[in-house]
Predict the 3D structure of the following.
Amino acid sequence: MIIRRAVLVAALIAGILTGSPAAAADPGCSPPTPSTTRPGYLVADPDCALDGTPFTALPGARAHTGIRDGAAYRIEVPDRWNGQLVVYAHGYRGTGTTVYVSDPDLRAHYIAKGYAWAASSYATNGYDVGQGVRDTHALIGIFQQVTGKRARNVYISGASMGGHVTAVAVEEYPRSFTGAMPYCGVLGDTELFDYFLDANVTAAALADVDIEFPAQPDAGFPVRWAQQVGQIRTALTGTDAGRTWSDVLERRSGGERPGFPAAFAYWNAASQGGLPFLFSVYPGLTGGTAGIAPGNLTDNRRTLYRATDGRRLTAAEWRLNAEVLRVRRTAYPDPGLAGVPRVDGRPPVPVLSLHGIGDLFVPFSMEQEYARRAAANGRAGLFVSRAVRDVTHCGFTSDELKRGFDDLITWTRTGRRPAGDAILDRRTVAAPGFGCRFTSQTRPQWAPCPA
């Protein structure tokens, strides 16, 4: 089974990002209750899934649910508990005002292996990583209060924005966790917004379309932007300029690597709000703040855009860098839990991460950014990254996730660092077989890996 693989991109973006339950609740489910901490927010019943299905413990386990400080939680403990706990951090759920808790992808695996798990809805939606960190860390205390048991080891895992939560949590609470497994995570904090900026300003420059970056967009900006996107798409579709944009985006999202043409086509076919996906997340629509930072977080004044890997820039690259719109930041990632929290790259415990090399929602370059920061801080030995040949966002098989988790556990028990990919070696990343080592199932966009 491939996690989230069957979800269409439209559902991924329009459904996951709405942040509101889509299905009518089962008659046995309670309606959402008003939040006690966030005016205007509702907290969905943690005893029911979004489709109204009651949440019940797996065979051989016991479940606990509740609402604490405006956040719903779920806890599941196997009868033969091994004394260890995994807390799970969910991803971005848009800006809806209903929060809800969901199960981790590896729920059944945790229980089968004797691990208890706990998950929170968080008290807010939006890109509120700080709230995600606080509510996920609070699960450790809630677990002890609800079960009357203290976990001797606590692991944290999170997907997408939950990966950002995971990376910040282990730095903010270094004594609370034994190990961490983010996947498809925003490990480069505000580098994600820079990537969205770069994708759009380079497309506009190559299409010879003048665009703007309003820190405070006026009411007419979305219409103007949609018109400009139409002009950009016309200029880039099936043209040399469009192929150059693909080359630029490939290098900006992680470097030359196998399967990128399929990934580029896949994400250009995705849409959100009537726009192709990459153009729908142009930071100028929000000032680059994600609705939470105190100003524009993006900056490309010193960014050098490349479409090739030669020692010197080509004439076309010189022209692109001269013509591209340059943007100056007015805010920075927060050193604490306000705004968009900074990831320092100082893991105090082993971190094993997985990322799809064709993911252009949260690009593979997030892994590379974290690896560089960890290396600069002398923590390279505490980070292992595994590349998976997939074009979707968080489209891992259960076997890929299980292997990652089991290897993380072995690492923390024995001290022996598990295998990973040399994601900072350009030639390794560009090799035809890159991503094969930790890919358990061939996706349609790739030929089978060599035996």
In short: The two ends are 21 Å apart (CA to CA). The chain is about 35% helix and 15% strand.
